[in-house]
Amino acid sequence: MSLNYISLNHFRNIEALSFQPSADINIIYGANGSGKTSLLEAIYFLSHGKSFRTNKQKLLIHYEHESCIVHAKKQHLNLSIPVGISKNKQGETQLKIQGQASRKISELAQLLPVQVITPESYELFFGGPKERRKFLDLGVFHVEHSFFNAWRQFNKILKQRNALLKSRPHNYAEQIKFWDVEFIKVADQINIARKAYIERFNAYFFDKIVSQIPIFSGLELRYDAGWKEDLASTLKANFERDVKLGYTSKGPHKADFSFYINGHSIENIFSRGQLKLLLYALKITQNTLIETETKKQSILLIDDLPSELGEETMTSVAELLKLCQSQLFITAITAESISAVVEPIQREKKMFHVKHGSLTT
Ligand SMILES: Nc1ncnc2c1ncn2[C@@H]1O[C@H](COP(=O)(O)OP(=O)(O)OP(=O)(O)O)[C@@H](O)[C@H]1O
Ligand SMILES: [Mg+2]
Asked: Which secondary structure element, helix H or strand E, spans residue 94, and what is its range?
C-alpha cells in the first residue's frame, strides 16, 4: 500500500505538478526555495488536512489562486484508491475518497499513515509535552480502533468540565460530580490503550533498534498517564485547585513520556545529533508498528535529511532506514549529499529534481 500517483495544484509555489513515485524510496532534490518542503507538505496535508510547518493553512494556497488541491492514488493489492483534498481561502476543506465526498479527515488519516521528520522536529519533540502526546496518540490511533472515539468523547467531557469550572453556575459541584463518572471511565480507556501501545513500542525499540545503535543501550522510557494512582481520588483531591485554575489539571490530557539514561533525562545528556538520531529511531519504530499491526504500508517524509548530521550519524540513519519498509520521500539540496544514506538500502529508488516548483526525473 503506497502512493503510486500524486498531483498538486496551486500548492505553495507549485502551479501544477504530477508524478509517479516509487513504492520504496523517493529522493527529491533541488536548490533552496525550489519547492522540496512544499512537496512533502502536500503529502502530509493529504493525510492530516493541515501543514506541518505553519498553523496558517491559507499559506498553502498559491498567492495568486483561490484554492489548492492535492490528489493521489493509493495502491492497495490490485486496487488503486483515489484520494483528494482541497482547501480554499475561506478555510473550507473538501475531502474525497474513492470519488465519495467525506467530512472526516480521520478517514484519510486512517487510510494514509503519514509521518514527517524535519530538521526542527526533534526540538518540538524534546520541548513541551503536547508534541509527545501527539506522537504517542498517532500510533495508538492507528493500532487501536476504539481509541479515536474514546479520545473524542473525552475531549467533549473535558470541555464541559472546564466550562463548569470557569463559569461556576450555582450547582457546579454536583454537575461536575455527574460528569466525572464518564470522565473517569473514558480516561481509563485512553490510558489502557496508551499503555498497551507503549509496551509494544518498547519491545520493538529495545529488541531491534538498540541492537543497531549502541548509544541507545541503557535508555529507559517513562510514561506519565497524566495522574497518579486512582483518578477518582485525584480529581477529588484537586477539586479546589481546579476551581481556582478554572480548568482540569489532571487527566489523560496531561499525559507525557520521556527518556532517561542512567537515571538522567536525555535532554541533559545527549548531543543534538544523538537526539536527532533518537527521533529517527522513534518515528521508524512507530511506522513499523503501524505497518505490522494494520498491514498498511506507511509513509515517512524526511525533509532536508543531511542538515546538521555528521558522517557517523548518517551511517546510523542508514542502519535505521534499512529496518523501515515505509514509502520514503527524502529531500536534500543535492542527491549526492544523501547517497551514503540511501545507497546501502536494497530497495527501488527514484530521483526527482525540483526546479522553480516543477519536477524533472
Ligand atoms: N503560498 C505561496 N504561494 C507562492 N509561493 C510560495 C507560497 N508559500 C511559499 N512560497 C514559495 O515557495 C518556494 C518553495 O518553498 P519551499 O520551502 O518548498 O522550498 P525548499 O525547496 O524546501 O527550499 P529549502 O532548500 O530552502 O528548504 C519558496 O520560494 C517560497 O517563497
Ligand atoms: Mg525546505
From this structure: strand 93-97
